[in-house]
């Protein structure tokens, strides 16, 4: 059938535009159709697949095929790691953390083992616990809770920063933690938290504490910044510490020439004077002696 050609250039241009628009519309719809087809196929595979595999008795073979296909499709649809979002990090080394996460941008996010990553991250000395999550389509979220330094553990090899659980921290500048109390003793790290909690219950006394020594794996001797030693009992440490506070408020014992305050017995307190004060008490100056 013969059609009369357009009479003007404007009509020819209009016809070309209409044809291009139709072609573009068809192409776009085709892409949408393909995308819907793939997602529908993937959904159907995930829902109906287990039953079909069980029914045919070829579960192992078809599961492997389905897994590979699902990973390939997820990558095609942009479900690859593009962002790693870290929350809660202050002291943890960023490079060590990234290595522990173990996932590089561009790999399929559906294959990432969040439990294995969490276990690796929690091996880092500063990390107390961690949570690793996927946020589809392309983001990993890593939330960590870091350990809080509470004391310096002194050994023959030097000083080590420890937290409330007694964990020994790594990768730090020792000079940043010289204001922490020093604890001494083989089992001091495991028991430091309870002792420090007791001492902190009376802030004005805790401000005077410079260190603590674990004695016989049973109890603590506390050293104050004025050089005085406080011997605490194995049990009821909190009551003994409160008794020291009362003694100081009533008798100003912490301002006297005292070397040791022994609070190990619940019903009495023993005090040892400094060598100078003890000597003066043994040989008091005689009255009336002229220089």
TrEMBL record:
Q: Where are the transmembrane segments?
A: 36-55
Q: Which Gene Ontology BP terms does the record give? A: cell septum assembly; FtsZ-dependent cytokinesis
Looking at the record, which segments are called Disordered? 1-21
Q: Name one GO cellular component term.
A: plasma membrane
Instruction: Enumerate composition-biased segments (Polar residues).
Output: 1-10
- Is the Kinase keyword given for this protein? no
Which InterPro entries does the annotation name?
A: Cell_div_FtsQ/DivIB_C (IPR005548), FtsQ (IPR026579), FtsQ_C_sf (IPR045335), POTRA (IPR034746), POTRA_FtsQ_type (IPR013685)
| Ranges of Basic and acidic residues composition bias in the record | 11-21
Keyword tRNA-binding (UniProt): no
Location of this chain's protein in the cell: Cell inner membrane; Membrane
What PROSITE patterns does this protein's entry cite? POTRA
User: Topology with regard to the membrane?
Assistant: Single-pass type II membrane protein
Keywords associated with the record = Cell cycle, Cell division, Cell inner membrane, Cell membrane, Membrane, Transmembrane, Transmembrane helix
**POTRA domain residues:** 79-147
Function comment: Essential cell division protein.
Family recorded in the similarity comment? Belongs to the FtsQ/DivIB family. FtsQ subfamily.
What is the designated name of this protein?
A: Cell division protein FtsQ
Organism lineage: Bacteria, Pseudomonadati, Pseudomonadota, Alphaproteobacteria, Rhodospirillales
What's the encoding gene here? ftsQ
């Amino acid at each position: 059938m013969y059609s009369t050609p357009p009479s003007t250039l404007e009509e020819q241009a209009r016809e070309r535009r209409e044809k291009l628009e139709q072609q573009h519309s068809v192409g776009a719809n085709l892409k949408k159709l393909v995308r819907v087809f793939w997602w529908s196929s993937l959904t159907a595979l995930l829902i109906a697949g287990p039953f079909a595999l069980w029914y045919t008795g070829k579960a192992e073979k078809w599961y492997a095929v389905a897994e590979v296909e699902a990973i390939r499709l997820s990558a095609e649809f942009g479900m690859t790691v593009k962002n790693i979002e870290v929350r809660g990090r202050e002291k943890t080394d960023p490079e060590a953390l990234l290595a522990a996460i173990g996932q590089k941008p561009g790999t399929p996010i559906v294959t990432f083992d969040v439990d294995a990553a969490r276990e690796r991250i929690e091996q880092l000395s500063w990390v107390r616990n961690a949570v690793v999550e996927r946020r589809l389509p392309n983001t990993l979220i890593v939330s960590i809770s870091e350990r809080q330094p509470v004391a310096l553990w002194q050994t023959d090899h030097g000083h080590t920063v420890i937290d409330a659980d007694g964990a020994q921290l790594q990768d730090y500048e020792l000079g940043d933690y010289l204001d922490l109390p020093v604890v001494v003793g083989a089992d001091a790290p495991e028991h430091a938290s309870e002792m420090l909690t007791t001492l902190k219950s009376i802030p004005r006394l805790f401000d005077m504490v410079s260190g603590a020594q674990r004695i016989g794996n049973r109890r603590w001797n506390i050293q104050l910044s004025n050089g005085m030693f406080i011997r605490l009992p194995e049990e009821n440490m909190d009551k003994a510490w409160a008794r020291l506070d009362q003694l100081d408020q009533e008798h100003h014992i912490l301002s006297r020439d005292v070397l040791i305050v022994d609070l190990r017995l619940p019903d009495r307190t023993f005090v040892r004077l400094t060598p100078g004060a003890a000597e003066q008490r043994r040989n008091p100056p005689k009255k009336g002696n002229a220089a």
